[in-house]
Each structure stands twice: as structure tokens, then as C-alpha cells.
Write a structure and sequence with these properties.
The complex is a heterodimer.
Chain A (H helix, E strand, L loop, with lengths): L1 H9 L1 H21 L6 H17 L4 H23 L5 H22 L17 E5 L2 E4 H23 L1 H11 L1 H6 L4 H27 L6 H4 L1 H10 L5 H25 L6 H20 L21 H20 L5 H27 L6 H17 L4 H23 L4 H17 L14 E2 L13 H27 L2 H11 L1 H6 L4 H27 L1 E2 L6 H14 L4 H18 L9 H20 L3 H10 L14
Antiparallel strand pairs in A: 1-2, 3-4
Helix pairs in contact in A: 1-12, 2-6, 2-7, 2-9, 2-11, 2-12, 3-4, 3-5, 3-9, 4-9, 5-23, 5-25, 6-7, 6-12, 7-9, 11-12, 11-13, 12-13, 13-18, 14-15, 14-19, 15-19, 15-22, 15-23, 15-24, 16-17, 16-22, 17-22, 20-22, 23-24, 23-25, 23-26
Chain B lengths: L4 E10 L2 E11 L4 E5 L6 H9 L6 E6 L2 E2 L5 H6 L2 E3 L12 H9 L7 H5 L3 H20 L15 H13 L5 E5 L7 H18 L2 E5 L3 H7 L2 E6 L2 E6 L1 H6 L1 H8 L4
Helix pairs in contact in B: 3-5, 3-6, 7-8
Classes of the chains: A mainly alpha, B alpha/beta.
């Protein structure tokens, strides 16, 4: 018992860190109803900034001041890009763009120092308070103190000042607030500025405690911040503090508990946070009011597939020119063949999102996790002697089952809440699932040989590679055709109806639950198929290609090309492949400058496209070229 | 013979407030029953209990003598219930025909796999749904609207399309939630005439919630008046209209 108490108290400083990050989320959400997924990334940018300033001889206090000012600036810039975008969920996707952008920028600027950087230390980790065996160092005590002071101080600030009152008015009824003479834009700007500053400060303060500075840890911390913010019901700053500290206190206890029975299990901290996120989200439902503002990926236009011969011909043309033609030509080398295979695989992954976002109307930020389920599922099945093609099918079924499980809460949750849950899952999968032994293999790479498609005899390797390329491209074309067919069939009719009005769809005799889950299952199946085929391409399954960045970028590409666009998926596939090519061959998570550049560009493109055209590149193009019949203008649909 | 639709002592309680308190009513085959009452009388809540959107705190809802009190909304549709909405809820982004086809798909069966792989069942399902939807459009004389996107329809036509969509379900009981709201007097008169024709031709029972006496009086065989969650009066329209209690509820106490 004493041990557990000591463990729990030891988690206090970490809990305070979670709370600090969560404060940045809550302050922005309180005002603008936008969920800032980039909190951790802002912290990351500011931590690197402070550290590099200190490296260049700047004294620590001004360095931190500059870093916090940078956080404020980033917050303000984010508000400016969020402002022209309509719909809280779409706005939240803009913050995912910022997450990528900031992560990329940090990688590009500090790439030479990544991994070797020393965090900027305000205080030394010297003992400060001793409680028997337990000691809090100076910097730990400082974090706890600052977290308490900030949450209490800001809570008072929002209650007492005129700005605080205006903030509440803006969040409850922006239009009414505007009519009362409140400058809504300025209030939002201030809130984002404060939020950005706090996120930045949290990054600067957290990194010394972690004793390291890298480009992912702080971002993954977001899942814990999400949990703390949700415990605070996204509005109460003191409750957020309590939530963060509670999480920090519980995690070491859970870790201890699990590691004594299952020593190989990793990522229990993230798993605990995920459970807190899910419980908080589902409890919200019961007690809290249904927040009409938070829902809806609006206005995502439901566009019909291009009709008419010109459009069909051009679609087929893109497919042929992009995939089939290069295969027919005999003089393509092995590398470009594998690139074609990759394009088709990633195209399939984007396609699964086109189905989920464009047709089902739900946002998943964990599509790469479904892919990983397909990949590992294939590996496990082959281990038991299942033939390759059947194994891929089984892996895809596994992914469909997991997607259905993920879809279950979606029946109760708003789309924005589902985005929070799926992003948390993506973070957790990184740390937990991909190193979980019954699933991944101990050396974290499950062999996936592909008999019939790769000969060990070097002389026939080319033939194997070519056959495999044909297989994947064929399956991709079939899947694209299937998604289009599905959308225009009976289930598609029900799904499209569902996005417009759930009560009316139920009144037509369709079970809302079952229709939604079928959409999730189909999307998961396609993602799983892509994952299995990718494992086949690499002849092994590992978690690295399916990390949280991949999940976010897949969503980004689907949004960039246009979530309602089937032919757009292939363009999405091209972009992913292009991005992996610059990294060098496969989609291994490289920390090099080129990988960061790609992340940066993806983020910038996502933000840019959402500001300019919410229906993506294909929507933009079709409006420019007037592909479609004029009477079928996009229709704004409220979810 | 059991009534098509029957409510037995239905009650809905929100906290300590009885929104609906012991409502019983019957709708027999071929009968049109009007549910009327002043604002806040509990008509809409009662209606939602019938459709399955609002669970009842007590009492029972029976369709053809079968207890459906616990059945979800979509299951009730399968048992012959169809409805329209107070605020028209057509499926945006679809044409009129496509809207009707969603309803007509109740009689088809094609799953995700059949649809995705274009198995023969898919074509059969789509053809059957299209045929049913076209037939209903023709019956109501709305063929010319077939390919119009529903968002561009004026309210009057949108109400007609919603009625058509409900009729695609081949209902035994048709529930109409304030079908005349948003319509001008001429449109209302047309709509009443159409409902009378639907009833004469298809013989389906109807339960309608309505404010407009111009709709209720000519159409209904039976009226149920609600006030403060209870049934205030029930009977033939002319009798109910002359009931002094009903007059008081609607017009206030005479000075």
C-alpha cells in the first residue's frame, strides 16, 4: 500500500504537466469551440526555440520569454487561419494541419540537432522537498506550482474581467454577442493568443522534466492533455488541473499493476489516458447538454460522382496513365514498380477515408491503425500457415472488426468527439499496440512472405515484383469501383440520407446504428486490405509505417484531394508515395530533414486548402472547369 | 378486431413534470384521427412516443394489437408505421426520386457486399425501389419533380414530396405532424383534398397533429383534444368543437 501511495505521489509533477498542456486546449475551446489538437506541437516548437536560444548564449529567462511570445504568435496565426473556415469540426481539422506544420518546421530547422538537444532548464533538478523516500526536485516543484497558479489565476481572470465575460458570451452565442457589440474576432484572437502562450510555456517547462527533446514525445503527450481537458469538461480550469494531476497519479499505479503481471506490455500510460478519454466522452453524453455547435463536418458538400462521358473518361484516363500504363511498359525497373505498388496501396488507404468521411460523414484520425491491424493480422495468419491471399483477406476482416468497435461509440458521439477519440487511439496504438507481443512480434517486425509474388531466386525477383504490382493495382481499381458502387447502391442511399437527417432515416425503416456500423466496417476493411498489401510489399509488418503522423497525414490527403472524390484517392496515393520517395524508399518514420519537409508541406497544404476550398482540390477543380451539371450545386448539410 | 394503432394510458415524465399524463386513444383501420390542443398540451410528445423517438415512462403503444412500446423507430416502420415531420426533413443532396427510393428500399434487400461488388441483387434492389418510387410519384401527380434536387423545392412541394416518401413505405398507419404548417390557405386546401384522396384510394389509417381547424374538421372522423398532457375531450369533430371545455382551453374563460 505504501508503495502505491509513493508511486502515486511520484506522478504528481507529470500530472501537473498534463494539466498545463490541457489548459491550452481548454482556453481555446471555451471561447471558439475549436479543439486545438496542435497544443503539444506548439509546446514542441517553443521548447526547441528556448533550447536553441540558450545554446546561443541567451540567458534562460529572456529565452523562455521569447519562446512564450512565439507560442502567443503561433496561437494568433492559428486563429487567423481558423477564422475563415466554417464548421467547428473542419476548424479542428485545420489545427491538425498546424500540428503537422509545426512538427515539420521543428524538424527542418533543428534537424541537425534533433536528439542531441538539451532542454532549456530554468531550474536544476536538485532536491527541493523531501517527503521520506519521495523527493520533488526544484523544477518538478516549479511545474506543479505554475500549473496550480495558472489554472486558478486564469479561472479568476475569466470570471472577473470584462474580457472573461465576453469570452463566455462568445462561446455560448457568437452571433448574439456580435449584436451586443462584442468584438468576437478580437475576443477569439486573445483567447487563441493566451492558449498558444500557455501551450508554449508548457512545452518549455515539460521538456526538462522529460530530460529529452525529440519531435514526437511532446506531441504524443497530447493524448494525456486531451484526457485532462475532457475531465475538466472542456470548460473548468480547476477541474482540468485536477484531471491532469489525477491522470498523473493513476498512471504509475496502473503501470506497476500491469507490469507485475504482464512485464512485456508497454504504453500503459497512453492506454490509461485513452480509457479516461473514452469514459469522459461517454459520460459527457449523459450529463452534459448536447452541444449543437460542436457537431458536424459542415458544410462538406455531398457531391455526386462525376457523371457524363467526359468525366468518366478522364477518371479512367487518370487511372490508366497513373498505374496501368507504367506496368505494361516493360522497361520500368523494380524500384518504380514498387513505387506503383505503393501508390496503389496508399490510394486504397485514402479511399477508405473517402468512404468514411465523404459517405458515412464521420472523421477518423486513426485510419493507419486499421491498416496496421490488416498488416499484423496478415502476418499472424501466415504464421499459422494460412496462404498469403487468404491471410490478407483475414487481416482485412480483423481491421473491419476493429473499425466496427471504434464505430460503436460513434453512435453516441458527435463527429468532433469521435475525432478526439480516434486521435487518442492513434497515439495509444503507437506506444501500446505496436509493441504488444501477441499482436506485433517481439522484434517488432512480423515476416509476411509473399509466395508466388516474390521469388528468392534473384533472376526471377523482377517477375515477382511485377506480379505483385499487378495484384495490388488490380485490387485498388476493384476497390475504387466498389466504393463508387456502394455509394450509388442501397447502402449508399441510406448513408447519404443519414447525413441529412437521422430521425428521417430511421423513419424510413433503416436502423441508424446498423447503417453507421456497416460504413465503419467497410472503411476498416479497405484500410486493412491496404495494410496487408503494404506488409506484403515490404514482406514484413511493423508499426512504424502506421504511426500517428501517418493517420493524420492520411486524413490530410483525403481532405486535400476532396473527401467526396473517388478518383481523388489515387491522387492522394500519389502524394503519399511521392512523400515516401523523398524520404527514401519506404515510409519508415525518418527524422531527417526531408521527412520533416514533407510533413511541413502536408500541414501547410491542409491548412491552405481548407481556407480556400473546403471540398478539396477536386472540388476546386470541378468548380473551375464546371465538370458537373449546374443544378447539382454542393449542398451544405448539417450533421 | 384490434385497432390499427392504440395508445393505452401513455405517460411521459420529464423530471417532475408530466408532459403526457395518461393518454389513451385508438385509430381503427381506414380512420382519420386528429390530435389537437393548444401549445404545450403534449401533442408532439405523444406523437414522438408513437413514432419511437421518445420513450414512454408508462403505458403501452400497440400496432395491430402488437405491443411496440420498446421497439425502436426503424422497427416500427417495418410494422407499417410511416410519418412526416413538422419541419420538413428531406434528404438534402438527393433528387426527389432518390429521396423516395430510400423509403422504397424498405422492400428491397441488398447488403454492403452486394452493393460494393455489383452482385445481381444490387440491380434488382435499385430497379424495384425506382419502380415503387415512380409509381407513388405518378399517383400523386409529381412525376415532373422526379429529377429535381430537393433543396430547391418550395415548402409546399417539399411537403408533398415528404408525403410521397412516407407513402412509399406502404403504411398501415400514416402519422402526419402538422402537415399544413408553412402552407398558405390555397396550398392547405389542396393538401387536404390530396389527403382525402390518399385515404379514399389507399385506405390507410391516419393520425394527424394539427393546429389548423381548416385541416382537421373536413378530414377527421374522430378528434382527440389534449390540454396539460391529458385528454380533455374525444369524439366526433362537430361534438368536440361545441364542447364548452374545449372552447375554454382554446379561447380562455369567457369574460
Amino acid at each position: 500500500m505504501r508503495l502505491y501511495i509513493a508511486l502515486a505521489l511520484g506522478g504528481l509533477p507529470i500530472g501537473a504537466m498534463y494539466a498545463l498542456q490541457a489548459l491550452g486546449i481548454v482556453i481555446v475551446y471555451k471561447t471558439s469551440r475549436v479543439f486545438n489538437f496542435a497544443t503539444g506541437a506548439i509546446g514542441l516548437a517553443c521548447a526547441y526555440n528556448a533550447s536553441s536560444l540558450v545554446d546561443h548564449g541567451v540567458p534562460i529567462v529572456p529565452a523562455i520569454a521569447v519562446a512564450v511570445a512565439l507560442g502567443v504568435l503561433i496561437g494568433i496565426l492559428m486563429e487567423l487561419t481558423v477564422r475563415p473556415v466554417r464548421g467547428t469540426l473542419t476548424r479542428t481539422i485545420v489545427t491538425l494541419g498546424w500540428l503537422l506544420l509545426l512538427q515539420g518546421v521543428v524538424g527542418v530547422i533543428y534537424s541537425s540537432q534533433v536528439g542531441t538537444n538539451e532542454p532549456a532548464r530554468l531550474l536544476q533538478p536538485d532536491p527541493f522537498i523531501s517527503l521520506g523516500v519521495l523527493q520533488y526536485s526544484q523544477d518538478q516543484a516549479a511545474v506543479i506550482g505554475i500549473a496550480i497558479a495558472l489554472s486558478v489565476g486564469l479561472a479568476v481572470f475569466f470570471r472577473v474581467t470584462a474580457l472573461g465575460t465576453a469570452t463566455r458570451a462568445v462561446s455560448e452565442a457568437p452571433d448574439a454577442a456580435k449584436l451586443l457589440g462584442i468584438r468576437v474576432d478580437r475576443v477569439n484572437l486573445v483567447a487563441w493568443g493566451i492558449g498558444g502562450g500557455i501551450s508554449g510555456l508548457s512545452g518549455v517547462l515539460i521538456t526538462p522534466l522529460l530530460n529529452k527533446l525529440d519531435t514526437t514525445t511532446l506531441v504524443i503527450f497530447t493524448v494525456q492533455a486531451l484526457a485532462a481537458a475532457l475531465v475538466g469538461r472542456l470548460s473548468s480550469l480547476p477541474l482540468t488541473l485536477a484531471g491532469g494531476i489525477l491522470l498523473g497519479v493513476v498512471q504509475p499505479v496502473v503501470f506497476r499493476f500491469v507490469s507485475t503481471s504482464f512485464p512485456s506490455v508497454r504504453g500503459t500510460d497512453e492506454l490509461t489516458a485513452l480509457v479516461v478519454v473514452l469514459v469522459a466522452l461517454l459520460l459527457f453524453r449523459r450529463g452534459g447538454r448536447r452541444d449543437a455547435v460542436s457537431g458536424g463536418l459542415e458544410p462538406v458538400p455531398i457531391r455526386p460522382l462525376p457523371t457524363g462521358r467526359v468525366a468518366i473518361a478522364s477518371t479512367v484516363g487518370v487511372l490508366l496513365a497513373g498505374l496501368v500504363l507504367p506496368l505494361v511498359m516493360d522497361d520500368v525497373g523494380n524500384t518504380s514498380r514498387s513505387n506503383i505498388t505503393q501508390t496503389a496501396v496508399w490510394g486504397m488507404a485514402v479511399l477508405s477515408l473517402v468512404l468514411l468521411v465523404g459517405v458515412v460523414g464521420q472523421v477518423s484520425v486513426c485510419q493507419a491503425v486499421f491498416m496496421a491491424c490488416g498488416a499484423f493480422g496478415t502476418g499472424i495468419a501466415m504464421l499459422h500457415g494460412v496462404p498469403f491471399l487468404l491471410a490478407i483477406f483475414l487481416g482485412a476482416l480483423l481491421a473491419a472488426a476493429v473499425a466496427t468497435l471504434v464505430g460503436l461509440p460513434a453512435i453516441r458521439l458527435e463527429p468532433l468527439e469521435l475525432a478526439i477519440a480516434t486521435l487518442s487511439l492513434a497515439f495509444t496504438a503507437d506506444r501500446f499496440l505496436y509493441s504488444w507481443v501477441p499482436f506485433a512480434s517481439p522484434d517488432s517486425n512480423r515476416p509476411v512472405p509473399r509466395p508466388g509474388f516474390a521469388s528468392l531466386d534473384p533472376g526471377h525477383a523482377a517477375a515477382g515484383e511485377r506480379n505483385y504490382a499487378w495484384l495490388v493495382v488490380g485490387l485498388f481499381l476493384l476497390t475504387a469501383f466498389d466504393v463508387a458502387s456502394l455509394r450509388r447502391g442501397r447502402t449508399g442511399a441510406a448513408l447519404t440520407a443519414l447525413r441529412s437527417s437521422e430521425p428521417a432515416t430511421a423513419a424510413m425503416g433503416f436502423s441508424v446504428t446498423s447503417v453507421k456500423l456497416r460504413g465503419f466496417a467497410a472503411s476498416g476493411f479497405i484500410a486493412g486490405l491496404a495494410g496487408g498489401l503494404y506488409a506484403g510489399l515490404l514482406q514484413g509488418a511493423s508499426g512504424a509505417p502506421f504511426d500517428f503522423t501517418r493517420s493524420i497525414t492520411l486524413l490530410a490527403y483525403a481532405v486535400i484531394v476532396g473527401v467526396a472524390s473517388v478518383p481523388g484517392a489515387i491522387v492522394g496515393g500519389f502524394i503519399v508515395t511521392l512523400s515516401t520517395l523523398t524520404i527514401g524508399g519506404t515510409a519508415e518514420v525518418a527524422s531527417g530533414r526531408s521527412a520533416s519537409t514533407v510533413t511541413l508541406l502536408t500541414g501547410a497544404l491542409l491548412i491552405g486548402i481548407l481556407v480556400v476550398a473546403q471540398d478539396g482540390l477536386f472540388g476546386l477543380l470541378s468548380r473551375v472547369f464546371r465538370f458537373r451539371r449546374p443544378q447539382r450545386e454542393p449542398v451544405a448539410v448539417t450533421a | 378486431m384490434a385497432a390499427r394503432l392504440e395508445l393505452r394510458d401513455v405517460g411521459v415524465r420529464f423530471g417532475t413534470f408530466d408532459a403526457v399524463d395518461g393518454v389513451s386513444l385508438k385509430v381503427h383501420a381506414g380512420e382519420v384521427v386528429g390530435l389537437i390542443g393548444p401549445n404545450g398540451a403534449g401533442k408532439t410528445v405523444t406523437f414522438n412516443v408513437v413514432t419511437g423517438l421518445q420513450p414512454a415512462t408508462r403505458g403501452a403503444v400497440l400496432l395491430d394489437g402488437v405491443d411496440v412500446t420498446r421497439a425502436p423507430a426503424h422497427a416500427r416502420t417495418g410494422m407499417g408505421l410511416a410519418r412526416t415531420f413538422q419541419v420538413v426533413q428531406l434528404f438534402a443532396g438527393m433528387t426527389v426520386l432518390e429521396n423516395l427510393m430510400v423509403a422504397a428500399h424498405r422492400f428491397t434487400s441488398a447488403g454492403v457486399v452486394t452493393d460494393a461488388l455489383r452482385l445481381p441483387g444490387r440491380r434488382r434492389a435499385l430497379a424495384a425501389a425506382r419502380e415503387r418510387a415512380s409509381a407513388v410519384l405518378a399517383f400523386l401527380g409529381l412525376q415532373h419533380l422526379s429529377d429535381v434536387e430537393v433543396s430547391s423545392l418550395p415548402v409546399g412541394q417539399a411537403r408533398l414530396v415528404e408525403l410521397a416518401r412516407a407513402l412509399c413505405l406502404k403504411p398501415k398507419v400514416l402519422l402526419l405532424d402538422e402537415p399544413a404548417s408553412g402552407l398558405d390557405p390555397a396550398e392547405t386546401a389542396d393538401f387536404v383534398a390530396l389527403l382525402a384522396e390518399v385515404r379514399a384510394t389507399l385506405g390507410c389509417a391516419m393520425l394527424l397533429v394539427e393546429h389548423d381547424m381548416g385541416v382537421v374538421m373536413p378530414l377527421c372522423d374522430h378528434l382527440v383534444v389534449m390540454n396539460f398532457g391529458r385528454v380533455l375531450a374525444s369524439g366526433r369533430p362537430a361534438d368536440v368543437r361545441d364542447d364548452p371545455e374545449v372552447k375554454t382551453a382554446y379561447l380562455g374563460t369567457p369574460a
